[in-house]
Design a protein that fits this description.
This protein has a domain of about 55 residues: Orthogonal Bundle (434 Repressor (Amino-terminal Domain)). The chain starts with 12 loop residues before the first strand and ends in a 9-residue tail after the last strand. The longest helix is centred in the last third of the chain and has 12 residues. The chain is mainly α and about 100 residues long. The chain contains five helices and two strands, in the order E-H-H-H-H-H-E. A two-stranded antiparallel ribbon has the order 1-2.
């Protein structure tokens, strides 16, 4: 039986860029050509929350990240962890 060490349980990451969660939300919104009001309507958040998030004045939190990810059609990790890039996955073929 093979023993798996704690380090083998996780996929390595690499710091990729310096960008805040608020900047990611703003970039995604602009890319979609949405106003803050449109994003608020699509995500169920308030205009004030969108503004605070984009200006990094409030922690986004899990629920807001999920609502925004759903509105944008992206994985929540894109919003929550924009500065990291997932390392190469090592997968084994199971017979």
């Amino acid at each position: 039986m093979r023993t798996i060490t704690r380090e083998q349980e996780f996929v390595p990451t690499q710091h990729y860029i310096d960008i805040t969660t608020g900047e990611v939300v703003r970039m995604l919104r602009v890319k979609m050509n949405w106003s803050q009001t449109e994003l608020a309507q699509k995500s169920g958040l308030t205009n004030n929350n969108i503004s605070l998030i984009e200006h990094d004045k409030v922690d986004i939190g899990k629920q807001r990240a999920l609502a925004l990810a759903k509105a944008f059609g992206v994985h929540p990790a894109i919003i929550l962890f924009p500065e990291y890039e997932i390392g190469k996955l090592h997968t084994k073929r199971v017979a």
